[in-house]
From TrEMBL, chains A, B:
The lineage of its organism: Bacteria, Pseudomonadati, Pseudomonadota, Betaproteobacteria, Burkholderiales. This is FAD/FMN-containing dehydrogenase. The keyword Glycoprotein does not apply. InterPro entries: FAD-bd_oxidored_4_C, FAD-bd_PCMH, FAD-bd_PCMH-like_sf, FAD-bd_PCMH_sub1, FAD-bd_PCMH_sub2, FAD-linked_Oxase-like_C, FAD-oxidored/transferase_4, Oxid_FAD_bind_N. Belongs to the FAD-binding oxidoreductase/transferase type 4 family. The keyword Flavoprotein applies.
Length: 468, 468
């Protein structure tokens, strides 16, 4: 049975693109090394037609397919299970920019293009593709679309969903839906595009996309501000939105303990401001000039100082200084690794309710686990916190993770639910949060999702065991 | 059978909210007076629970339900068919703003709220709800969501879809999906929200929504520019996007014949510029000040004049002048009515291909129908043209419409298809374009849409005969 399938796959793709021997761990082990799978074979189609051929063969043999881009996901969504019975379909060979239309502000690309390559392709035309996230050097746009990735500029440009105008998708039956579109408006039927986006490969395989581009801003400027409380950080956000409008492209929150880990593990990194309860990194993108951005920042921060919203501030005066500020922000996850394993949460809340949520949940965790330490940072402008729980000092981080993860999650996710938040803001569900989702999503929503899955993938062949 | 249903509906809603006698034409006749239906009864639930009760009763009796908001749709999507067997469900009594959260920049509202009332509710808090369209005084947000309405600020803020964070929906089985969410990020499963948005009441009944709000701009400024060609209008668009970034909130195109009808039928309206092939109305929303917007406009128009992109320009120097410029734009549809019936098209194209499309399609129509006149105007920044075909001068507009509509549509829609455009940019499909959609949408897309419809409404009770 599987010999016939492998034979068919070799005929369709050529022997060299059907891998079933040797070290396949780069395909079979997830990025966080929590999920180790075993594929029946890794296949590497080079075109949409070949992806469709693979899917038709697998449908005929009733063999499951796990699509994979850069394999940088954080929830175990893109590796096969351990059964050795699933086909791992890598999109990495499909990595061409098919068309870039500056006058329409769009580009049409293969799903396997690496995000950074797309940023560069836009930049070479004097344009901006604004999706930006930590894994951009190796993640693919297909994976970004499948998980509706977020990142650091969501405040202004939205998630990956908002950056996509059209898709090309191979269905569970191996048909090709040609939904590539450079249109800003199209009200001709159901929104298939957004259904496939964020479905983590469980409804179809994204093979291509038409993406939005933007004029490149004339200037980008970064500042740090020291806020005494979370309420004052929110007040600063409101003021910045009022003054800068959509010029505000970044508003990142960093708790003092998160920054203290950076100071501890990377003592040579410059610290632009003295320690304070909450540090905010603001970024303005300006369509006029650096001088205009500077004036805007100065006025904004002056008002914030006068109103007692902030206690101190520093504006980066060069691109280099600006990069240094971002570097500190981006060093938080690395500093956490140095400090030891922790229990990560990628949650979203209504922005207005964040101070109350943090106060209550911090207190509940500290009561349940005396000495526990909270690494709290994230995209405050989007209501998205990386609310991570670090073991008490001196104890074993590995033991804490193993023994307390479930109890910690229960406290955090119960609070998220009570505040009408989301247990997965930007990382998705994958395998990691599937059971949690089944418990926490409303039965009506789960029923609708299952009906849609059954309608589009009746044999259950597309990335089984993920999301639902 | 239907007596038992009516009895059940009266018990659920009270006698006064189940109308089956008297003049029901405001519910049964569509806004363009092309579709006259007859309902078994008009029901007016006052709460989401009552909508669910109505749906459960209708499901039990296998009677179809046609949801209706303000009944201002242009494609016959919200009136019952002529059989007298369908229940018309009006959402108009559900018209409360449930919550407005300025710090989260959201409001949660009933589906039956009139759009203008929502604009005002936001304005009273110093905030902006940017959806704006001709019918705003009577259309409802539920209808806007069901049709993914567009309007005049899509360029900056997107269609209704982009303005919605969460929905409350009654399903075909009469269950309530509580998907109201004030979250900017939420990757927990399939995108049910966007599936219901734009589905024209065929997958569920939208009863509530959480909408995005924005800080109100400090200033809004309008200008007119005279462009010798469509290519120069596009060059002006590129320049304006580069200079103003997301401050550019309007870019409306008006062909000379469209404006000549306004001059002819409303000779007292002031004309800010002499006639020219293409007139563009630009609008800038500024988060700083009127002076800043003025300087930006002056710099932009000066460069455009120097580069030969425009031949003339006028900047409104007061709110009154600005309103007068918009008034001319908004008088085009009224001037068309005065001139007589015409054949309307609401099409979208890749922005970059519009000049070529217009040249080819104008020529094809003039060759096929000598003397035919083209009323071409629309939202150029979104690639959305209202490309309307007026009978040759002197002939009977009614005869032309009756005899030639089909042949005219064939030429226009063939060209739209060849240029990878959309036959319905913002008005939707309804009854009017259902057959055209079945002919022009790809079989794979239609197959996916039918599978979803079957999954979510297996009895086919929700707005049958629309879209699919």
């Amino acid at each position: 049975m599987s010999a016939a399938l492998l034979q068919g796959l070799r005929e369709a793709l050529g022997d060299s693109q059907v891998l079933s021997e040797g070290d396949l761990s780069s395909y079979e082990l997830d990025w966080r090394k929590r999920f180790q799978g075993k594929a029946l074979a890794v296949v590497r189609p080079g075109s949409t037609a070949q992806v469709a051929q693979v899917m038709r063969l697998c449908a005929e043999h009733r063999v499951a397919v796990v699509p994979q881009g850069g394999n940088t996901g954080l929830v175990g969504g893109s590796v096969p299970d351990a059964s050795g019975s699933q086909i791992l379909l890598s999109l990495q060979r499909m990595n061409k920019v098919r068309e870039l239309d500056p006058a329409n502000l769009t580009m049409t690309v293969d799903a396997g293009c690496v995000l950074q390559a797309l940023q560069q392709a836009a930049d070479e035309q004097g344009l901006l593709f604004p999706l930006s996230l930590a894994a951009e050097g190796s993640c693919t746009i297909g994976g970004n679309l499948a998980t509706n990735a977020g990142g650091t500029q969501v405040l202004r440009y939205g998630n990956t969903r908002e950056l996509c105008l059209g898709l090309e998708v191979v269905t569970a039956a191996g048909e090709i839906w040609q939904g590539l579109s450079g249109l800003r408006k199209d009200n001709t039927g159901y929104d298939l595009r957004d259904l496939f986006i964020g479905s983590e490969g469980t409804l179809g395989i994204i093979t291509g996309a038409t993406l939005k581009l933007y004029p490149r801003p004339q200037a980008k400027m970064t500042a740090l501000a020291a806020c005494p409380t979370l309420d004052s950080a929110l007040a600063l956000l409101g003021l910045a939105q009022q003054r800068a409008g959509s010029g505000l492209t970044g508003f990142e929150l960093m708790g003092d303990f998160a920054l203290s880990l950076v100071r501890k593990h990377f003592p040579l990194l410059p610290q632009a401001l003295p320690p304070c309860p909450w540090t905010v990194l603001l970024e303005i993108s300006d369509s006029e000039s650096e001088a205009h951005a500077q004036a805007l920042f100065e006025g904004l921060l002056e008002t914030a100082l006068e109103n007692g919203v902030i206690e101190d501030a520093a504006v980066a005066s060069s691109l280099e200084q600006s990069r240094a500020l971002w570097h500190v922000r981006e060093s938080i996850p690395l500093a956490q690794v140095e400090e030891g394993l922790n229990i990560k949460h990628d949650i979203a809340l209504p922005v207005s309710r964040i101070p109350e949520f943090v106060a209550q949940t911090d207190a509940a965790l500290k009561a349940a686990f005396p000495g526990v330490r909270l690494v709290n940072f994230g995209h405050l402008g989007d209501g998205n916190l990386h609310y991570n729980v670090q073991a008490p000092e001196g104890g074993s981080a590995a033991d804490f993770l193993r023994e307390q993860e479930h109890a910690v999650n229960a406290i955090v996710f119960d609070a998220v639910t009570a505040f009408q938040g989301s247990i997965s803001a930007e990382h998705g569900i994958g395998q990691l949060k599937r059971e949690e989702l089944a418990l926490r999503k409303s039965p009506v929503a789960l029923g609708l999702m299952r009906a849609i899955k059954q309608a589009l993938d009746p044999q259950g062949l597309l990335n089984p065991g993920r999301v639902l």
